[in-house]
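Justification of resources, computational component.

The compute hours requested in this renewal are based largely on the per-chain cost of generating structure records like the one below. Each record pairs the submitted sequence with a full structure-token output. That output is archived, and it is also reused by downstream analysis tasks.
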Amino acid sequence: MGVLTEAIRRHHLSLAKTLQAHARGVGGGETDSERDSFVAFLKARQQEILHAVHETYEEERKMPNQHLLDVREVVPRERHTLIFDTFAALKPGDTFVLVNDHDPRPLYYQFEAEHTGQFSWEYLEQGPVVWRVRIGRRA
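The structure output for this chain reads:
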């Protein structure tokens, strides 16, 4: 299982536990109507995440040798350094897939300012939970 699929699967399991707890009334203080509403919301989110897991798994199977750089667990102030170090290590024509928890549009502008004409940028997934961008070094 790929890094991205595993991360989404963990998120799904966390939501499932929350759903089960609220379905049993563990939250406390909610009315039946509020609890039912919340359970319906969590079930909808759970389905979205399951769909994302399936799509991501299929995408990872299509590109098994593709390097994934998942920065969602990296301290924000260290992310850009890690990303630019990864880019610097690429040979011309090589790519990596950046996985992030928000739209990395500011990163694109930084690439444009510092590496004009030297990189490629392709969105593979644009939220709302995960953003994936294929970044490459042009020949």
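The chain has four helices and four strands. The mean pLDDT is 80.
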